[in-house]
Amino acid sequence: MSNEAIIFMGPPGAGKGTQANNLCKDRELHHLSTGDMLRDHIKRETDLGKQAQSLMDAGELVPDDVIIGMVRSKIEEMEQGKTRILFDGFPRTTAQADALAALLDEFSIPLHCVLLLQADEEEIVARLLKRAVEQGRKDDNEETIRNRMSVYRKQTQPLVEYYTEKGNLKEINGMGTLDEVYGRIKEAL
Ligand code: ADP
After folding, report:
1. Coil, helix or strand for 93?
2. Is the peptide bond preceding residue 91 cis, with omega within 30 degrees of 0?
3. Average pLDDT over residues 61-87
4. Range 82-86 average pLDDT
5. pLDDT greater than 80 at residue 154
6. Residue 22 in contact with residue 117, Cβ under 8 Å?
7. What's the pLDDT score for residue 17?
8. The domain at 4-169 falls in which architecture?
9. 56 CB under 6 A from ligand 1?
């Protein structure tokens, strides 16, 4: 299978993680989640992890250059000609989107589409608070959740227009059962 990139966007708690796993299996995509990569750095106590920790705990974004460097090394590690990637939680700012466009161009990876998973804010907060109990993530308390939503609105929401203008954005209704939502994703592709 040839190179392909899909971007998976949506507010925190819209259910991206679960759906991303399904999609990666079905389309043989490598799941590149910047949130997971950062949590791995924190676990391994790397310098990058130490730099990211307090920002993540507060629900703020990690600086663009750090994130872009991390994504670039990941793409470089992958076998050329077989770079099939689902970007989850990246890009989150216009600067990251511009950097990604340049990377995709450099590595000859066509952008298949951008999926935007939508969910209602109260439902999202409820989901995240539930996840806090299940997984014990430090940034899943109500105050941080509200801040992550506000950061999303201010810094990431503008990308909806960015990709709509490019003509490859597909909006997915994220409400309903996992199977229902996944059905809509498959249809959009
Ligand atoms: P969620 O989508 O539920 O907020 P993520 O796992 O995607 O969770 O991200 C967790 C945190 O990691 C974010 O709040 C942010 O601090 C940091 N992070 C993840 N991806 C990025 C990114 N692309 N740019 C900046 N910060 C990021």
Report:
1. coil
2. yes
3. 94
4. 94
5. yes
6. no
7. 86
8. 3-Layer(aba) Sandwich (3.40)
9. yes
